[in-house]
Amino acid sequence: MANQKILDKKQEIISEISEKTKNASSVVFFEYQGLTAEETGELRRLLRDADSEFKIYKNTLVKRAFDTLKIDLDSELVGPKAMAFGTDAVAPIKVLNDFAKKHPALVLKVGIVEGEIADNAKLKELSALPSREGLLTMLASGMIYPLKNLSIALDLYKQNLEKEN
To answer: What predicted TM-score, i.e. pTM, was given to this entire model?
Structure first.
Protein backbone atom coordinates (compact mmCIF):
# COMPACT_ATOMS: atom_id res chain seq x y z
CA MET A 1 0.00 0.00 0.00
CA ALA A 2 1.28 3.45 -0.93
CA ASN A 3 2.39 5.84 1.76
CA GLN A 4 -0.20 8.55 2.57
CA LYS A 5 2.38 11.30 2.02
CA ILE A 6 3.02 10.01 -1.50
CA LEU A 7 -0.72 9.86 -2.23
CA ASP A 8 -1.19 13.41 -0.93
CA LYS A 9 1.71 14.64 -3.08
CA LYS A 10 0.20 12.97 -6.17
CA GLN A 11 -3.19 14.52 -5.44
CA GLU A 12 -1.51 17.90 -5.05
CA ILE A 13 0.13 17.50 -8.50
CA ILE A 14 -3.21 16.41 -10.04
CA SER A 15 -4.84 19.53 -8.60
CA GLU A 16 -1.97 21.67 -9.92
CA ILE A 17 -2.39 20.25 -13.44
CA SER A 18 -6.16 20.82 -13.30
CA GLU A 19 -5.77 24.42 -12.12
CA LYS A 20 -3.10 25.27 -14.69
CA THR A 21 -5.20 23.74 -17.48
CA LYS A 22 -8.35 25.63 -16.40
CA ASN A 23 -6.51 28.94 -16.13
CA ALA A 24 -4.51 28.64 -19.36
CA SER A 25 -5.75 29.88 -22.73
CA SER A 26 -3.69 27.15 -24.36
CA VAL A 27 -2.03 23.93 -23.29
CA VAL A 28 0.36 22.29 -25.73
CA PHE A 29 1.80 18.78 -25.48
CA PHE A 30 5.13 18.13 -27.15
CA GLU A 31 7.90 15.57 -27.25
CA TYR A 32 11.19 16.86 -25.95
CA GLN A 33 13.40 13.73 -25.99
CA GLY A 34 16.75 14.50 -27.57
CA LEU A 35 17.00 18.11 -26.41
CA THR A 36 20.10 18.92 -24.40
CA ALA A 37 19.89 20.57 -21.00
CA GLU A 38 21.07 23.82 -22.59
CA GLU A 39 18.36 23.66 -25.29
CA THR A 40 15.73 22.86 -22.67
CA GLY A 41 16.84 25.87 -20.65
CA GLU A 42 16.65 28.05 -23.74
CA LEU A 43 13.13 26.77 -24.47
CA ARG A 44 12.03 27.49 -20.88
CA ARG A 45 13.40 31.03 -21.21
CA LEU A 46 11.64 31.64 -24.54
CA LEU A 47 8.35 30.35 -23.14
CA ARG A 48 8.73 32.46 -20.00
CA ASP A 49 9.26 35.55 -22.18
CA ALA A 50 5.96 34.71 -23.91
CA ASP A 51 4.09 34.46 -20.55
CA SER A 52 4.04 30.68 -20.81
CA GLU A 53 5.28 27.85 -18.65
CA PHE A 54 6.99 24.55 -19.47
CA LYS A 55 6.29 21.58 -17.17
CA ILE A 56 6.87 17.84 -17.30
CA TYR A 57 4.41 15.58 -15.48
CA LYS A 58 3.83 11.84 -15.37
CA ASN A 59 1.23 10.81 -17.93
CA THR A 60 -0.83 8.94 -15.33
CA LEU A 61 -1.19 12.11 -13.25
CA VAL A 62 -2.13 14.13 -16.34
CA LYS A 63 -4.75 11.51 -17.26
CA ARG A 64 -6.26 11.69 -13.76
CA ALA A 65 -6.34 15.50 -13.87
CA PHE A 66 -7.95 15.46 -17.32
CA ASP A 67 -10.52 12.90 -16.15
CA THR A 68 -11.67 15.41 -13.53
CA LEU A 69 -11.85 18.10 -16.24
CA LYS A 70 -13.64 15.74 -18.66
CA ILE A 71 -10.91 16.09 -21.30
CA ASP A 72 -10.12 12.96 -23.32
CA LEU A 73 -6.52 12.91 -24.52
CA ASP A 74 -5.63 9.42 -23.28
CA SER A 75 -4.52 8.27 -26.74
CA GLU A 76 -1.99 11.14 -26.91
CA LEU A 77 -0.54 10.59 -23.45
CA VAL A 78 1.80 7.78 -24.43
CA GLY A 79 5.53 8.17 -23.95
CA PRO A 80 7.37 11.13 -22.48
CA LYS A 81 5.61 14.43 -23.11
CA ALA A 82 6.02 17.94 -21.78
CA MET A 83 3.32 20.56 -21.42
CA ALA A 84 3.38 24.28 -22.14
CA PHE A 85 0.72 26.42 -20.48
CA GLY A 86 0.07 29.85 -21.97
CA THR A 87 -1.98 32.86 -20.96
CA ASP A 88 -2.09 33.86 -24.64
CA ALA A 89 -3.77 31.27 -26.86
CA VAL A 90 -1.20 31.45 -29.66
CA ALA A 91 2.08 32.60 -28.03
CA PRO A 92 3.31 29.23 -26.69
CA ILE A 93 2.36 27.52 -29.96
CA LYS A 94 4.41 30.05 -31.95
CA VAL A 95 7.40 29.71 -29.60
CA LEU A 96 7.32 25.91 -29.73
CA ASN A 97 6.85 25.82 -33.50
CA ASP A 98 9.74 28.25 -34.09
CA PHE A 99 11.94 26.30 -31.67
CA ALA A 100 11.04 23.01 -33.40
CA LYS A 101 12.24 24.43 -36.74
CA LYS A 102 15.73 24.85 -35.28
CA HIS A 103 15.64 21.75 -33.05
CA PRO A 104 14.03 18.75 -34.78
CA ALA A 105 14.02 16.78 -31.51
CA LEU A 106 11.04 18.88 -30.37
CA VAL A 107 7.78 17.65 -31.90
CA LEU A 108 4.39 19.28 -31.33
CA LYS A 109 1.71 16.68 -30.68
CA VAL A 110 -1.64 18.05 -29.54
CA GLY A 111 -3.06 20.99 -27.64
CA ILE A 112 -6.05 22.51 -25.96
CA VAL A 113 -6.70 26.01 -27.28
CA GLU A 114 -9.52 28.06 -25.74
CA GLY A 115 -11.10 24.83 -24.44
CA GLU A 116 -11.00 23.03 -27.81
CA ILE A 117 -8.69 20.12 -28.62
CA ALA A 118 -6.32 21.03 -31.45
CA ASP A 119 -4.40 18.39 -33.38
CA ASN A 120 -0.94 18.91 -34.85
CA ALA A 121 -2.33 20.39 -38.09
CA LYS A 122 -4.42 22.93 -36.16
CA LEU A 123 -1.39 23.84 -34.03
CA LYS A 124 0.66 24.50 -37.20
CA GLU A 125 -2.18 26.66 -38.54
CA LEU A 126 -2.36 28.66 -35.30
CA SER A 127 1.41 29.13 -35.25
CA ALA A 128 1.15 31.00 -38.57
CA LEU A 129 -1.17 33.63 -37.07
CA PRO A 130 0.32 36.98 -36.11
CA SER A 131 0.70 37.69 -32.42
CA ARG A 132 -2.03 39.50 -30.50
CA GLU A 133 -0.06 42.73 -30.72
CA GLY A 134 0.38 42.23 -34.47
CA LEU A 135 -3.36 41.69 -34.93
CA LEU A 136 -4.16 44.80 -32.89
CA THR A 137 -1.69 46.81 -35.00
CA MET A 138 -3.35 45.54 -38.18
CA LEU A 139 -6.76 46.52 -36.80
CA ALA A 140 -5.58 49.99 -35.82
CA SER A 141 -3.94 50.62 -39.18
CA GLY A 142 -7.10 49.44 -40.93
CA MET A 143 -9.13 51.92 -38.92
CA ILE A 144 -6.68 54.80 -39.47
CA TYR A 145 -6.31 54.30 -43.25
CA PRO A 146 -9.75 55.73 -44.25
CA LEU A 147 -9.24 58.73 -41.94
CA LYS A 148 -5.82 59.36 -43.44
CA ASN A 149 -7.28 59.30 -46.95
CA LEU A 150 -10.07 61.66 -45.89
CA SER A 151 -7.59 64.13 -44.39
CA ILE A 152 -5.48 64.02 -47.56
CA ALA A 153 -8.57 64.61 -49.71
CA LEU A 154 -9.69 67.53 -47.54
CA ASP A 155 -6.21 69.04 -47.65
CA LEU A 156 -6.10 68.77 -51.45
CA TYR A 157 -9.57 70.32 -51.64
CA LYS A 158 -8.41 73.19 -49.38
CA GLN A 159 -5.31 73.76 -51.55
CA ASN A 160 -7.48 73.73 -54.68
CA LEU A 161 -9.80 76.37 -53.15
CA GLU A 162 -6.82 78.56 -52.20
CA LYS A 163 -5.48 78.43 -55.78
CA GLU A 164 -8.86 79.51 -57.17
CA ASN A 165 -8.99 82.55 -54.88
So the answer is: 0.72
